[in-house]
Amino acid sequence: MGEEQTTDFGEQIRYPDTVVCFDRDYTVSVNPHPNHEAVPLSWVKHLAHERREIHVWATGNQYLRKEAAIPGINEAITSWQELMLPDSVERFREYVPPQSARLGRKEGLALVRAIYEELNPNPKNQPDFIVVDDVDLSGLGGYEHKFPWTFVDAIESGTAPVDVQRPVSVSDVPLTESNCPESYPPVDRDDPAVLRLRE
């Protein structure tokens, strides 16, 4: 969709075709659902670090941020603050109310979408937004909701809105564990990579 920009760590970033937001608990294999299949952590890392046309966010339990080296709600708030303040305090408060200690699941998802809409206000050039969560978010406007087990089934059958090219070359070991064979640049909370899209 857009030109690529380079981060301080040499990573390429471009305006995405798809944005995928993942919950963690009962959704990703680091804390799987007891009765359903979970999304392998390797898929999350693959989509986030091997596929430049896809941006991945942690919008549930924020431990996933460090386990997969992906941006989360803190980075979304920082990005929104950078985009809105000091000129548009009211618009900033639309998504980050002053009294909220932390954003809920739906508020965080709405904020992630608002960031991309602000970075590229042309409605014809918006990415597809997908949320993978064990909680039913099908009523949330602007997102295609997938339960983790239906997301896994769709990937395996080739009917998912994104493709995980297999075999995946990354492990299911969280980046927070010393035996993880991968290393990715840490997410910069103060200067999220998504802000490079405006340069």
TrEMBL record:
Note the superkingdom of the native organism: Archaea
Which segments carry the region annotation Disordered? 173-192
Q: Per its record, how is this protein called by name?
A: Uncharacterized protein
Organism listed in the record? Halovenus rubra
